[in-house]
Design brief:
The protein folds into two domains: 21-318, Tetratricopeptide repeat domain (Serine Threonine Protein Phosphatase 5, Tetratricopeptide repeat), CATH 1.25.40; 402-520, Orthogonal Bundle (Arc Repressor Mutant, subunit A). Helices cover 73% and strands 0% of the residues. It has 25 helices and no strands. The protein has helices at 2-16, 18-32, 38-54, 58-74, 78-92, 98-114, 118-132, 138-158, 162-176, 184-201, 205-218, 224-239, 243-259, 263-279, 283-303, 323-365, 373-376, 384-392, 402-417, 428-434, 439-449, 454-472, 481-487, 493-504, 508-519. Helix 13 (243-259) runs antiparallel to helix 14 (263-279). The radius of gyration is 27 Å and the shape is globular. Residues 410-514 form the HTH araC/xylS-type domain.
Amino acid sequence: MFKSLLKIVFLFVMILFPAQEKNIFDQVYEKSISDIHKKESSQLIKRADSLYILAKMPIDMVKVLMASANAYQQLGDIKKSICYAEKANIGINHVGNPEWGVRIQVFLAQKYRLVGLYERSKKYTSEGFQRTKSIEDSIIYYQLLGELYQEMAYYESNVGNHEKAIYNLRQSLWAFEKVNDPMIFYHIANSYQLLGGIFSKQQNYELSEKHYVRADSLLKGSSFLSGWIYNGLGEIRLKQKKWAEAKLYLDKAEHVAEDFPHFDLKKAVYANINDYYEGINDSYKASLYIQKYVKVYDESNAKNPIFSRDVATTSKRMGHISIAKNIMIIVLCMILISLIIFFKVRQKQQHIKFKSIIRKQKKQNQAQDVGELFHIVDVSQMNTEYMNDIVIKKRNEPLMTSETEAKLLELLDDFEKGNLYNNKNMSLPFLAGELNTNTKYLSYVINQHKSADFKMYINRLRIHYIVDKLLRDERYRQYKISILAEECGFSSHSKFASVFKMVTNFSPSVYIKLLESGNSMENNIHFPENN
């Protein structure tokens, strides 16, 4: 009764003072995006649910949905966070408010990037750039433009285009500098922190440290961004083998990571602390941080099952079982035991073969020219009879001059360094058009120099791409097989699985399973975040 009375009073106040209604919703949103603790996030979700029922204006409904999305983000539940943001994105399409439209698209781009769906993240970033053109307020325009450049920098960095990432970050700093707001310093610090990470990957440690220190000087108060900065500085010291200084930075990073429910930060920090203890030969403490890493990894997967592979579940029914069923179960158990014994030797051989593939793939990742991968080692270990057929088809007489052939080979090498081969529309005429040549020349060069026809050449590139992702990024091992197939341009789950097995000698599910079990056997393959 008392709660009903409170709702009536609240509605009465909102009707009499419509200007205050806007302030209430704005305050909910602003609070949701601040650095709040887990307890406050839970309270905000309850409050936002109540306000959504009371909201009448479409824009207010959108704001409350985004308040919930931000709160679930703080709790580490990316699945629900994306769900609420997607609802808000649908709602904003019916509201003429480009500012909130861009805010939502920046948010979705960030979340999809965090779960490794980079192309979807890029899609929202690109749409955000288009919507900014309708924003009239110059301060808001430059702030959101800066955030979009940041997201584009994340994308370019994740696909290995570091120079483009640096360009986008500098564009973000240019945009942020036009915003006269104390809160903008956090975004500026984020850009400097990202620059520090990119220069660290390029082994330019002096410039990397300079940007990390600049980012730290802009932050006021504790923030999870501080954790990334200290972790980055600690990682530099690890690479320089300055153990004492590395420990100081990593201790600070761990302290920040423990205060915020950000799984990626925790995993990155625990991975570097593990490397620190391995570096000083303290195996016991190193193992403790491996356990911490695995615990956070499991918690992250439990929070976000929508991006994990489907796992078939069966309900265990306890009841009265007939004698016939008991006998059948016993017989089946005996058969299973026999099969396990029979395939034991074969399983060991499979693991040995798998380890060999892993070692070869790691050598491939160190190659400077991606085009040489097909000559250094072939992960596919293709059927020799097929290879012999391809060799037989090679022509004795060249169709073109040596200069044209060399130029086309150079263009193919550049093509292999990108990921255009993942395009679903990829075909011989399509690629010939991209390389400004004809299909006859292109087919000839691929057959002569890549030891494959066009179809196998493209499929082999795609499988190399996805195998590299599975090796380097644990998140890819959690995706559905259909998502992996789509990521590298295959038209169907079954086609991808068939080609994957032909190239690697394993089905995708078996390969991922062996890769997961291999993590416990291979000391050099345990923390992809360190790569």
